[in-house]
Amino acid sequence: MKRFTQLASVIVVIVAALASRAGRAPGADEAARAAAIKLYQSLSADQKKLAVKDLHHKERYLEQFPAVKRDGLPFSMLTAEQKAMVDDVVRGMTSDYGAQRCLEVAKQTPPGARYLNCFGEPAAGKPFAWRIAQHHLTLLYAEFGTGQADDFGPVLLGGNPVKNLWDDEEKIVLELYASLTPEEAKNIVAKDAKPGSGSPIGKSGIRIGDLSPKAQALAKRLLQKRIEVFSTDRRKILDGIIQKEGGADNLRVAVWGAPTKSQHDGGSYHWRIGGPGVVCDWQTVGKNHIHMTVRGKIKA
Questions:
Q1: Three-state secondary structure call for residue 127
Q2: In terms of domains, do 131 and 204 share one?
Q3: Which candidate, 78, 91, 179, 263, has a CA 20 to 30 Å from the CA of 271?
Q4: What residues pair up with 178 in beta bridges, in sequence order?
């Protein structure tokens, strides 16, 4: 009787665990993965010829902000249902904060100049990457199968007109610059790195861990604000790459120009946080015109 009672208790626990799992909402990556697979399966043979490429095709890593002709399947060839599936992937890989901004920027480009690519064939448990690319917006969602999640992006953000989409970020960098000591303000100026969005930081600027406490906290807050664009699951990948580089303390921060006033008021400056395998930056191209890159790669 005692053994029967113990067995019954075990069964109850297992059933309860299964029921809990079945009843919970899917995680961000689960939702993004399901939407990407559903979208892929909906593509016709002709659509797949344009969209599907090798897993590590060069187009996967291409970074282009302008509205140029690109390789891939143009959105003008997608059905309304397929376009809705694209939005589902975007919502799955981003936070509410990020989805709102990405979907708003997406509206700035006509369907014929927006492109979809699949690198590898999207399937559960298999490595693949899904990407949309257009003017001021490139989003890449990657699955690694049983392998290590060793890269993130590239993701391009921004806008023209950018309006107030990224004002929360700008407020932090203005506060950061104002908090610098005279010596820090001198050392944070970029010297050798190129100012264009997406360029590596090299040895330019100053190590975040070497900043004064207030400036250090603001630099980390600026980095986290950018990472806030992405879902919890996506953030874990980028955070893992940052930890491989010694954590946020070991990243460098550099500026071009002086972030003393908003780009809305004529401020013209660039900033970058990064390391050997990490790039997170902001380029003020002009008033109401911003380029932003996020990229991560674990270096061998």
A1: strand
A2: no
A3: 91
A4: none
Residue 170: count of CB within 10 angstroms of its CB? 24
Q: Is the peptide bond before 161 cis (omega within 30 degrees of 0)?
A: yes
How do strand 151-159 and strand 289-297 relate by DSSP bridges? Answer: antiparallel
For residue 297 the two structure tokens come to 């790669």
Tell me the residue range of the domain where 260 lies. Answer: 167-297
Establish whether the linkage from the previous residue to 127 is cis, with ω within 30° of 0: no
The residues that bridge with 280 in the sheet, in sequence order, are 273, 294
Give the tokens for residue 176: 């950061």
Packing angle between helix 28-42 and helix 80-93, nearest 10 degrees? 160
**Residues in a beta bridge with 296:** 152, 278
Q: How far apart are CA 222 and CA 280, in angstroms?
A: 10
Which of 96, 117, 147 is the last residue before a domain boundary? 147
23 in a domain, yes or no? no
Q: Is residue 158 one of the residues assigned to a domain?
A: no
Domain count, the chain: 2
Residue by residue, pLDDT tens for the chain (300 residues) are 444 444 444 444 343 443 333 333 446 799 999 999 999 999 999 999 999 999 999 999 999 999 999 999 999 999 999 999 999 999 999 999 999 999 999 999 999 999 999 999 999 999 999 999 999 999 999 999 888 899 999 999 999 999 999 999 999 999 999 999 999 999 999 988 999 999 999 999 999 999 999 999 999 999 999 999 999 999 999 999 999 999 999 999 999 999 999 999 999 999 999 999 999 999 999 999 999 999 999 987
pTM for this one?
0.89
